[in-house]
Amino acid sequence: MSTHPPAPQLWLNLSTLLRSCDAATYSRGLDLYRNQHVMELRIEPLGDRWLLTGQVQGSQRQPYALSIEVKRGPAGQVLEWDSDCTCPVGYQCKHGVALMIKAAYKGAQLIAGHEPEDATHQKMTLTQVSDQIRMLEERAREIALQEAQAQVQRWLKELERSNLARTATHAQHPGPTQRNEQFLYLLDILGANGPNPLLTLEVTLSYPKVAGGWSKPKPVRFFPERGQPVYDLASATDHDLLQLIRAMPSSASGYYYSYNLKSKVTLEGRYGVEALQKAASTGRLFVTETRGTLSKPVQWGAQRTITWSWQQIHPSEPDSDLWTLHARLTEGDGQLCLNNPPLYLDKTRGLCGLLDTNGLSMGQLAALLKAPRMQAQALQSLQRELSLQLGNLPLPPVVEQVPTVSGLAPRVCLRLKPATPQNAGLHSPIEAHVSFA
Ligand SMILES: [Zn+2]
Hints:
Elements: H1 14-19, H2 23-34, E1 38-46, E2 49-56, E3 64-72, E4 78-85, H3 94-110, H4 126-170, E5 182-190, E6 198-206, E7 218-219, H5 229-232, H6 236-246, E8 264-266, H7 269-281, E9 285-287, E10 299-300, E11 304-313, E12 322-329, E13 335-337, E14 343-346, E15 351-356, H8 362-369, E16 374-375, H9 376-381, H10 383-390, E17 412-418, H11 421-424, E18 430-436
Parallel strand pairs: 5-9, 10-15, 11-15
Antiparallel strand pairs: 1-2, 2-3, 3-4, 5-6, 6-7, 6-8, 11-12, 12-16, 13-14, 14-15, 17-18
Helix pairs in contact: 2-3, 6-7
Bound molecules: zinc ion.
């Protein structure tokens, strides 16, 4: 306040104004007034009150328009004030405070001759004015201190959170008291019974239960980001994993999930494999069983190979002659997933990993897995084409197996003989015959 030379008398008593609003609004209004944001002020009597109208420049291009009704005491006390403003707050806002402060300084000048009948003009002594200024300065210091404390408190809160995060990352066996929400990863196979099964990974939220295990996983509503406690408390592996998930194609239909919420993705490419490995390393990777219960954590397993075999459909029926080509994992059970690269999920053993396709391309693999039910007779009639296209894969048992001869090198025989008189004139006089033995 010391920047403003004290007016010999203030038309409105500022300490009564300060008491009638909250300190933060007062402080902001005072700033607006000091920075000359009050563009216009008119004062006119309104019965036993005064009507203040004016404009204050706020954050918008257009200044806000205000009207305030003030009931003023004989010594300029603010007994009542009601402000309306076009700003979003609309009522008793900082713009109103700024206009009131302007009225306090300029009021006497503006209303010369308009003083209502009953108002007794009581001039402030210089001591009263300087007392008021001292009081306001003290109040301003108080407000500044409160804001400084709030700033330190905000920072301490953030520090506390980061300390908690560090403890959580370094704790080998989190105790039962550590019940912070954590990321839980769920595996699912899209189109598990169709020709194109795909392994998907979903990030969810859960917390460790006191009795062990995890609470029912909750879907994430917003993609996890900095500033969310669950994100800030998460490990470096979780952070890497979330980055990788962001980079992968969403497995959900576009209109249901927003672009930013890719919480369930199809595991694709090198990053897909990396994401799966990382998820397995957290010990928080699960397969959702029916009724939403969790199985044991899924681990990263050794690479498995595919074995191809022909299977008869309905072998118990005497006249059944239908066959199909069947793929299964050589080492143990598990479902083959046509991700790129191909992956497997072994729910029984709680393992997932890469598949060795024995050199088959993704296209070949997809085509082979589409094998229909085929009649034995049809297979027999197409024996030559089958053996040509199946390559190293087994032929159906209904087809006569072509014996394989091994360990023998073919021998080339060249026989020369004189040409027959008929051919001698056309070609050379000697005929050559090549054969293999
Ligand atoms: Zn306002």
